[in-house]
Amino acid sequence: MDQKKVAAYFKSFLHKAELNLSVDCVIFTIQDDRLKVLLTQLFPDSGWMLPGGFIRKDEDSDTAANRILLERTGLNNIYQQQFEIFSDPGRFSFPKPKPELNLEDFEGIDLSLLPDRVISIGYFALVNYESLHLTGGLFEEDAYWSGVDELPELNYDHHKIIQHAREALRKELYFKPIAYNLLPEKFTMPELQKLHEIILGRTIERSSFQKRMLKWNIYERLEERREGVAHKRPYLYRFDREKYEEAIRHGMRFGI
Amino acid sequence: MDQKKVAAYFKSFLHKAELNLSVDCVIFTIQDDRLKVLLTQLFPDSGWMLPGGFIRKDEDSDTAANRILLERTGLNNIYQQQFEIFSDPGRFSFPKPKPELNLEDFEGIDLSLLPDRVISIGYFALVNYESLHLTGGLFEEDAYWSGVDELPELNYDHHKIIQHAREALRKELYFKPIAYNLLPEKFTMPELQKLHEIILGRTIERSSFQKRMLKWNIYERLEERREGVAHKRPYLYRFDREKYEEAIRHGMRFGI
Which contacts of B174-180 are long-range, i.e. CB under 8 A and separated by 24 or more positions? Predict the structure, then answer.
């Protein structure tokens, strides 16, 4: 590991960041009919973890979450929301520079100001796998999508953060039809149903599902069908943001 | 205002607290058929606000929320949960000691370490009005219950925190039957229904409400009736925590 690079990294955020406040992003996608999350490591053998980073002094947490996601993954403009804050005093001790680092690289910075704990704000994000183009962040030499049921060992309390994010996603589905963020712009009802089944972890009866989805009037049926599915040519739909906003104003619930 | 008292207050938490991290508690109760929240002021004319305080260095946020509630109101062992973090950089600037204070009272404390912003974790709590016995906190010379629709001018972003807490409470009712915390230990179905109507802000059809509540099997009907209601003697019920925990394990939803 390049010592000067580490020092520069520390230096760059020591003055700009709230060092006891971070954001961790649980980025969900669906691939091969499984719910997956993005894991990264800062450098080889540093351990798998969620993409995350420190909040800057002049940022609110939403802004920080979006910036960190962009910096660490290249993802921009995607659906993301805070769901819980993780504040166990023992959850994370700040990675103080190791003795083998040349501390002169940190000149002018009082390392004693590093806090003894970091509180993290958990965000979850939803992305469509096919439209993903990940780019590496500063230290990111590795990243991969892991099934939420096949997680490797993770740093800190990131296992817990992922499980809580999954519960939060399930809950949120009752109030906001956010699942479409996991699909391409145009999708079929069977695809939307499959998605709900994967997230909720249970099967859903087909006709009542479709009836409910269409009753909400927030999915616009297009004059196009999905071709190539043997003997079936299901209609394509598109999420209608305007109608959704109107439904929300009327206090609509979206329970499955 | 007693200058020495203010200085002692600052001193007492400067060393113990995460000065950029606070908890604000939205304590809901129902009185006269209206949803109300507890407002306090630190000292006369300091402005109305939510009971709150700084998280200590060795505390997680749940512990802090319970301690602060106890210190500021005397309430102990009540239902409370985090619902959102408020992190707008401009939401709260730390109340730096005013020039008229005698800074010698702060000897040994570097006031330049006071942060430029404070991020707050919003908690909401539910309490039964009749069993309340508020006791004043350190600076608390005033506290009162305000209807959520008749709030006075509030300090900081506390108006927003209360509105978001109300939305979070409404949402949470779909997943946890927490409303009983607002009632005495024994209650009637009409009382439980009234409570839901007040929180959700809409009327609910009586027979379908009772059918649903009883189907969940988490309210135990007692061999007692509420006396004194003209011509009606409705049965009393009690929340059954064991059956509730079991229902939760089976993934039950509690949508109204």
Answer: B174/A174, B174/A253, B174/A255, B174/B253, B174/B254, B174/B255, B174/B256, B175/A171, B175/B253, B175/B254, B176/B248, B176/B254, B177/B216, B177/B218, B177/B239, B177/B244, B177/B254, B178/B79, B178/B126, B179/B126, B180/B219, B180/B239
